[in-house]
Write a structure and sequence with these properties.
With 485 residues, the chain is an alpha/beta fold. It is 39% helix and 16% strand. The strands form two sheets. It has an eleven-stranded mixed sheet with strand order 1-2-4-3-5-6-7-13-8-12-11, sandwiched between helices. The protein starts with a helix and ends with a helix.
Length: 485
């Protein structure tokens, strides 16, 4: 009888949770729409071109013509101009609607990246690669990937963890994955062309935030895992194994990633989803030409991922009657968000001056022509309280002068070693290896403040310089070898 009573209580508990989940899911069609159909799928500015690609809750593109238009613009651009493509996948609570905070922040990042990559040194480097002549203007193309990050209005949306996480998984393994593979194939085909054929330079960067980080990881991880396994047949990535030490000789060629660099910022995905990449990647020895292929950044004070994510995973296990793993390491991988599982953390990102503090500001940007509901867009931007203060430590590398010494330092630099840019320091932890291709960095709260504090001046100044210098190293390697990118 007692057993029947306990079973009855358990069933009532499951029923109560089911009701809460259903209520939290809201109306199945709320916010489930495309915001950028037709001409709204392209925004042109003097600094960049921005294209929108939107997926529904099953991961199907609302209008495949959006993807065709973006891909067509990219292939046309790389045939005529040196081009950097930056794809951004937004996170929880966001979408592709006009004036969305993630969208406006991404536009600001594209503007800053344009300012960095049009510095004289990059122009001279491109001219050297093109036999002394610049091949037209440098183009930046942004691709904003929209999905149903918000499914109910207001604060209730915080209760939609399970539904939005499942949707992000589907988006990452459906049409978006094919779109990313097409970009990767175009990048690799272009990179394989010999320098003598005179191809334009093509850089490919992918960024995902929050559940958008899960979308990106779900899309690219299988291909990177296969590539890592092929490079080292003796390596094993079985999840129950503790990763082995490095094996064999340095790779004869750099590990090719999914384009140039994948950046995951506060990714809302479990550490287990990354573990195979971590295990396989640590068993390789990388050569001096290796640049990072994936950079994961996790804010120390990201409460939703550090605490609520774990609670959500535990409740999900109970609700789905998932067997409990007896090993605490395995449970940690399943329950902790990527970036908080200590075994995987390789680096630390922090200010050179630890006393600096961030403050949030509200920036305004001009609305797009098709955005009739807004006079001006507003978005949050974090900045140090003393941005004009003199730098505590000079940059490790500089793109301000095209000198032989500067070129030699960039070409020889290990971008997984201690690197200072714009007063932000990326330093390796004791577990890091030389020329590391897969980096997971914990981030101080005065660089990224909380889960949604990714659009911060210190972080973006660091990232734009870091991306630009990684591109410069690749350009210089191409110039030195005379081969493909």
């Amino acid at each position: 009888m007692h057993q029947a009573l306990r079973q009855s209580k358990r069933l009532r508990g499951i029923g109560l949770i089911a009701m809460v989940v259903l209520m939290a899911s809201g109306c199945p069609s709320a916010y489930h729409e495309a915001f950028r159909l037709g001409e709204k799928s392209h925004v042109a500015t003097p600094e960049y071109d921005l294209y929108f690609v939107e997926a529904d809750d099953e991961g199907w593109f609302w209008d495949p013509a959006q993807a065709d238009r973006a891909f067509g613009a990219i292939t046309e651009s790389i045939a005529t101009s040196d081009t950097i493509v930056v794809t951004f996948v937004h996170g929880w609570h966001h979408s592709a609607r006009c004036c969305d905070g993630n969208l406006e922040g991404f536009k600001e990042v594209l503007r800053q990246l344009h300012a960095e990559l049009t510095k004289p040194m990059y122009d001279r480097a491109r001219a050297a690669i093109h036999d002394g002549e610049l091949a037209g203007p440098f183009r930046i193309i942004g691709v904003y990937v929209g999905w149903r990050g918000r499914s109910v209005p207001g604060m209730i949306d915080y209760a939609t963890f399970w539904g939005r996480k499942s949707a992000a998984e589907r988006v990452g393994q459906s049409d978006f994955q094919e779109f990313m593979v097409r970009l990767k194939n175009a990048y690799e085909h272009h990179s394989a062309m010999p320098a003598a054929a005179g191809p334009k330079l093509f850089g490919l960067i992918t960024i995902g935030h929050s559940f958008g980080g899960q979308v990106v990881l779900r899309a690219v991880a299988p291909f990177l895992e296969h590539r890592l396994a092929d490079l080292s047949p003796g390596a094993q990535g079985y999840l129950r194994n503790v990763p082995r030490a490095q094996l064999g000789e340095p790779l004869p060629q750099p590990l090719r990633g999914f384009g140039d660099l994948v950046v995951l910022i506060n990714p809302a995905t479990e550490a287990a989803a990354y573990q195979r990449l971590h295990a396989l990647g640590r068993q390789l020895r990388y050569g001096v030409d290796q640049t990072p292929v994936m950079l994961t950044l996790s804010a120390d004070n990201d409460v939703p991922r550090n605490r609520l994510f774990k609670i959500g995973r535990i409740v999900g296990e109970w609700f789905t009657v998932k067997p409990r793993k007896p090993d605490p390491r395995e449970r940690g991988m399943e329950r902790q968000a990527l970036g908080f599982f200590a075994e995987q953390v390789t680096h630390r990102l922090e200010p050179a001056n630890a006393a600096r503090r961030l403050r949030v500001t509200t920036l305004q940007s001009d609305k797009e022509a098709g955005c009739v509901a807004h006079d001006q867009c507003e978005f949050e931007w974090y900045e140090w309280r003393d941005p004009a203060e003199l730098s505590v430590e000079p940059d490790t590398l500089s793109a301000d002068a095209f000198t032989e010494e500067a070129v030699a330092r960039i070409a020889a630099h290990d971008f997984s070693s201690r690197t200072v840019l714009s007063d932000v320091v990326l330093r390796p932890e004791a577990s890091a290896i030389a020329n590391q291709a897969l980096i997971v960095g914990s981030v101080a709260d005065n660089v990224i403040d909380g889960h949604n504090g990714m659009f911060s001046g210190p972080l973006m100044r660091f990232l734009t310089k870091y991306i630009g210098l990684v591109e410069a190293k690749r350009f210089l390697s191409r110039l030195r070898t005379g081969g493909g990118q």
